[in-house]
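Subject: mismatched residue count in predicted assembly?

I count 524 residues in my input, but I want to confirm that the predicted structure covers every chain. Input:
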Amino acid sequence: MTNKELIKFLRDHKDDPAFGGGDFDYRESWNRFARKYSDLGFTENPEPFVATWRDYANYFVHISSKTILKPAGALASIFILVFVGWVTAVNVSLASMPGDFFYPVKLVTERTQMMLTATSEQRARLHAEFAGRRLDEAMSIASSAHSDSDKEALMKTAVDNFKTEVASVTDELKNVSSTEGAQAVTELANAVDRKAEEYSAVIGQSSGDVTEVTAAVVEAQEQVTEAVVTEHEEQPQQETERYLDVAFQKDTADIRDRADMINVRLVRVETALTNNGALTVDIINTMKITKKAIKDFDDKIIDLSSIFAAGGFRTVFEKISEMKIVLTNAEVVVADLEIMVTEPQL
Amino acid sequence: MLRTQEQFLLFSIRTKRDEKAFDRLMSEHASALKRFFVYKLPRKEDAEDAFSITLFRIWNYLTAVEVESVSGLIFTIARSVVAEFYRSRKIETVPIEGHDQSPEDQEEKFENWMDVEIIKKKISEIFDNEQQLALQLRFFEGLTIKETAKRIQKSENATRVMIHRLLKRLRADLNKKV
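Triage response: the counts match. Full output below for your records.
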């Protein structure tokens, strides 16, 4: 027997009762079923099934909801879960510090924000905001309970990031159009100044080593001032002039205060050393040099006022920067002398 | 029946408990279902009862649950009804088909009857329920490989290979006996 013969045999005998064949009347079987389950509403010899346009419409709505709305709903659910998760992670990361688990999330969020920002002005604003965050982080690290070695590494990271952000602010400002530039530069310079003032206000509370942060903040202020000067030189505007005027007044007042304070501290040191009989020739020379270095600062400030009035802004702020460096060095010398006075006599 | 048409009928049954849609849907599968019961059960009455019970259970299922394909469901329920039949009652003495035939008629059909009986016995002995169903659908109901595959819920390729192997085995077994 071949396969063909077997298949032919099966097909030829499909109606054989042994194979379940024979006459089959579906309608009769249905009627039997309908009689048996008539309590469920089945009827004998039902009319043929005819669908109305409403049935088709309902079916269409059903299919649409299945093929479009359900996947869309699932997609929306996934999106919401991811979004909520991301928002939560971002919120948690906002308070994170360098070295924290969520800190990379904070940086990625900031980079994403930056990527989605279209104009240089907006990017510059964002960089300024991020610079403020880096400064906050540096201040938090300085007062944190990390070990000294960890603190030093984290502080370096924070300060480097702060410098990078400030550099990015000035870079972006170069691309800002001249019409919007003056206002944008001034606002951003003010923002950096405000942050620097906040920093100065709380720096006394910090127990950590903040010298590097202070230097970075001063450098940042100088950078933004330079950016304003550049903007003003290209196209003088009231905003930039007002900013430079205020900055000049603040700087000169600060220089005068610091110079006066140095003189007062030198007098005290001199008195103390004289009373102790510890005033040597070397110390006297050091004090003379220090006094001399800051002696003519009042005259210089008067000269700078004239230059400022004549529009020599760049020269004025360069000179102010130099004077600040001299003051910083003088303060270091005075601090050393004060330590000498307070040291126990052997 | 097209898949869309079947889906539309299933939708009407589930949402409106539409008896007419159910009647239309079952008429497509009734022949194979009835053959399955006649083949599996000893008496025609048993097959009729099993058919009604199966329709009732399919109705209950389709009005409660959204199903993608009804073919596989029908034979799954049908197999459980047959299993219940044999569990719930002892096998009674089965009246031999053709008892009421005259001795001449019986003699005329004897040779053919013997072949059919041998093959039926072999099929029942060497093949499981699913394999028997595949043979029935393919050769007795005359369904295509695609339709058969759909009803036994296998891929077309797997069904083609399965039927080929069933025939080969059945042929080998029959040849051995001869």
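Chain B is about 80% helix and 0% strand. Marking this ticket as 'not a bug'.
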